[in-house]
Specification:
Number of helices: 11
Radius of gyration: 18 Å
Number of domains: 1
Strand content: 5-15%
Strand order of the largest sheet: 1-2-5-6-7-8-9-10
CATH superfamily: Aldolase class I
CATH architecture: Alpha-Beta Barrel
Length: 299
C-alpha cells in the first residue's frame, strides 16, 4: 500500500490527477436550476474535483444550513464566518430541486453550525421529510456533522428515517489538532456507534482523505476503529489542497495504492469500499448503497 508519508515531497499533481472537464448542456442546466432555486451544493462550495462529471450527469450533493461554516478545518474550501438563521423554506426548495432533477437517490449534507443549539439537526430532519413528501420512492443519504456530540440532535435525524447515515472522520487521530481543530476523533466514532445502537439496520458510512501526512499504521488504526463501531461503508480519496492557505499535501497516492487500501478495508470487515484518487464521500453514493443492499439480501 505504498510508503509512509514523507513531508517535503513535490506538490505537483501526478498524471492520474488530470482529467477532462465534461461540460455541456446538462451541466449548464443543473447550474442554472441550483442558482434559480437559491440552493448550495458541496460540489461548488468545497471545490470538488468531480463537479463537472456529476453536474453533467444530473447529480449533486445539496448543502443546507447556509454556505458558511462555523469551523476552521484546514482541509476544507467551504467559507467561514458569520451565518444567519436557517432558511425555513430551504428544505422544500431542496425537495423541489431533487424532483426537477428526477433524482432517485438524494444526498444532503451541511456546513457545521455550532452556533445553533441542535447543530442544525432539526433542519436536516425537515429536509428529509420534505424529500419524502415530494419524492416518496427516493432514497436519502445524509452526511451529517458531529452536532457537538449532542445525542438528542442525532436522534432527531434518525427519527426522520434517512436511508444512509454518513459521517466522515476525514483523517487519522493524530492529525485532528492540526487538520480539524474544533472536531474530536472519538466524538466522531461515538456518533457512528450511536447510530448503530439506535437503528441497527441503518447503513452507516464514513470516509478519510489520504495524503495529509498520515502513516500506514494510523490509517489501519482508523479503519479498525470504524469497523468496531459498526461502520459498513467506506470512502477513501486523495486530499487536494484547495488554496495555498490550506494544509499542504504531504503525498499523492497512486491508483494502485488506493486499490490496495480497498482490498485491505474489505478484508477488515467493511461491506463496500470506494477508494481512488477522485473518490469523495458522496461520489457514486447510490451505487455504493445498492451494492450494500444486494450484499445484505439472502441468497
Amino acid at each position: 500500500m505504498g510508503k509512509e508519508q514523507e513531508p517535503g515531497l513535490p506538490r505537483q499533481k501526478p498524471p492520474w490527477l488530470t482529467r477532462r472537464l465534461p461540460t455541456g448542456p446538462a451541466y449548464e442546466n443543473l447550474r442554472t436550476l441550483l442558482k434559480a432555486s437559491r440552493l448550495h451544493t458541496v460540489c461548488q462550495q468545497a471545490r470538488c474535483p468531480n463537479i463537472w462529471e456529476c453536474f453533467a450527469q444530473g447529480t449533486a450533493t445539496f448543502l443546507i444550513l447556509g454556505s458558511r461554516c462555523t469551523r476552521t478545518c484546514r482541509f476544507c474550501a467551504v467559507g467561514r464566518g458569520p451565518t444567519g438563521p436557517p432558511d425555513p423554506e430551504e428544505p422544500a426548495r431542496v425537495a423541489e430541486a431533487a424532483a426537477a432533477m428526477a433524482l432517485t437517490y438524494v444526498v444532503v449534507t451541511s456546513v457545521s453550525r455550532d452556533d445553533l443549539p441542535d447543530g442544525g439537526a432539526a433542519h436536516f430532519a425537515r429536509t428529509i421529510r420534505e424529500i419524502r413528501r415530494r419524492l416518496p420512492d427516493a432514497l436519502v443519504e445524509v452526511l451529517v456533522p458531529d452536532f457537538c456530540g449532542n445525542p438528542d440532535a442525532l436522534r432527531a435525524v434518525f427519527e426522520a428515517r434517512p436511508d444512509v447515515l454518513n459521517h466522515n472522520v476525514e483523517t487519522v487521530r493524530r492529525l485532528y489538532p492540526v487538520v480539524r481543530p474544533q472536531a474530536d476523533y472519538w466524538r466522531s466514532l461515538a456518533l457512528l456507534g450511536h447510530a448503530k445502537r439506535y437503528s441497527p439496520g441503518l447503513p452507516t458510512k464514513s470516509g478519510l482523505m489520504l495524503g495529509l501526512g498520515e502513516t500506514l499504521g494510523e490509517v489501519e488504526e482508523a479503519l479498525r476503529d470504524l469497523v468496531q463501531v459498526g461502520c459498513t461503508m467506506l470512502t477513501l480519496g486523495q486530499y487536494l489542497q484547495p488554496t495555498p492557505e490550506h494544509h499542504p499535501v504531504a503525498r499523492f497516492l497512486s491508483p494502485d495504492e488506493f486499490a490496495a487500501w480497498r482490498r485491505k478495508a474489505l478484508d477488515m470487515g467493511f461491506f463496500q469500499v470506494a477508494s481512488g484518487p477522485f473518490v469523495r464521500s458522496s461520489y457514486h453514493a447510490g451505487e455504493l448503497y445498492q451494492a450494500v443492499k444486494r450484499q445484505a439480501q439472502p441468497t
